[in-house]
Write a structure and sequence with these properties.
about 100 residues, Oxidized Rhodanese, domain 1, 5-stranded parallel beta sheet, 5 strands
């Protein structure tokens, strides 16, 4: 469950499921195009919404909650990575948001 950079996450947008585990008010400020929003507190009950055959990149504001999500997903059998620095790093790098 390694951390990957925002640039590595950007390169994986077409391949991976980007799972944003932030709260609604945080996502309202911008999210990665094509990402799936499942707040961390709901993740365990909503795993069925994710494709087990596609890798997952977990995203949050700074990388802490997505680290927790990555461990949860890995223990449930998903191949996943944590995006280091979260949306703060993504936006700082000038990568696209919707």
């Amino acid at each position: 469950m390694p951390d990957i950079s925002v640039h590595e996450a950007f390169e994986r947008i077409q391949l991976a499921q980007i799972v944003d585990v932030r709260e609604d008010h945080e996502v309202a400020q911008g999210r990665i195009p094509g990402s799936v929003h499942i707040p961390l507190g709901q993740l365990g009950g909503r795993l069925g919404e994710l494709d087990r055959n596609r890798p997952v990149v977990a995203v949050c504001r700074s990388g802490n909650r997505s680290g927790v999500a990555t461990r949860m997903l890995a223990s449930a059998g998903y191949v996943c990575d944590n995006m280091a620095g979260g949306m703060l790093a993504w936006q700082s790098a000038g990568l696209p948001t919707v």
